[in-house]
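dude i think i finally got it to work??
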Amino acid sequence: MNDTTTTARVAAVSSNGAYSFTKPNRESITLLTGLGVEGDVHAGVTVKHRSRVAQDPTQPNLRQVHLIHRELFDEVARAGFSVAPGQLGENVTTEGIDLLALPKGTLLGIGERAVVEVTGLRNPCPQINAFQDGLLKQVVGRDEEGRVVRKAGIMGVVQQGGRVRPGDSITVTLPSLPHIPLERV
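look at this
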């Protein structure tokens, strides 16, 4: 099934070559096939997140690209928090797309050439509270049935490289049925 979302776009792009919770905004980033964001500390074939490396440094990197929906910043602002693109460590801040509702395996065409395959949900960590005390409760909680709800974005792997800039359009290609809901990666 191919669902093209014409209103979805890139609001900002960010990267950082050093371990840091936030990532500075850039004029553009380059996605590298099978690796992630060029020059970003989390790029690579195997896992780069410190906690994952400590568990098993040989596991595949399913977290090459971190995407967050800009609409989350509006939501947390209503609770008194001020968050801007890149401050939660994401590489691509999107607008006009419900990232959290996408199924596993969705392909996101970003800009002219780049394609990111969605692998799962970001699992928010306590560093979010170090950034702004109390923010973690805004991006992870429980629904009315007691299930954990993670809102801090999604993760993906680069299927096709390319340059990504603010303002670029995003197209969505859903995987074949049955759709598999996103879980933390």
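The helical segments are 50-55, 71-77, 127-131, 135-139.
im so relieved honestly
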